Hints:
The protein has helices spanning 61-70, 83-91, 120-130, 150-173, 181-191, and strands at residues 13-18, 23-26, 42-44, 50-52, 76-80, 111-112, 135-138, 142-147. By secondary structure, the protein is of the alpha+beta class. The chain has one domain: Class II aldolase/adducin N-terminal domain (L-fuculose-1-phosphate Aldolase). Helix 1 (61-70) packs across helix 3 (120-130) and helix 2 (83-91) crosses helix 4 (150-173).
Amino acid sequence: MVDRNLTSGTGGNISFYDQSNDVVWITPTGYDFYSIELVDLVGIDLTGKIIAGELKPTSEWHMHVEVYKYRQDVKAVIHGHTVYATALSLLREPLTATHYMVALAGKNVPIAEYATFGTLELAVNAVKAMGMKNAVLLANHGVNAVGSSLEHAFAVLEQVEYCSRLQLIARSAGQPIVIEDAEMNRIIEKFKSYGQ
């Protein structure tokens, strides 16, 4: 995430839900990403109770467990303070279908209502706004991306940031043209069989 400019310093957090053992493996709070080793991960249950590890989990653990409670298809959550998606969140502007790659997240990426970081209120707002999409912008904060694996969630995060950048650049020159709903439906279907 840091190498690809998707967050900086200790901002952002990552989790993976091991459903077979009912454990959410999550990054610790206030830890530089370059310093994190496997032993530093914290295992929590869906109530936030620490069941493995010596460190405190990220202060945003609510945002992770609320997704896992609501979405059976999600196994990974990545929260980043990306530049362009966060810029959209400062404008309270959703990411629209101005580029077809947004389809990795859904037809668009909505904005969750603002709430203080690390709170259950923010987590509930994020899950409510995201619904069955794979990403949500957090007002004045950042972005959450989810997926069936860490790799999937990371790919969503990368494309949300890329499309956010394009939308802001295009908007600085004029009014971007949004791809129609029917075409986005076709694109989403095509993505289901894309790749190896």
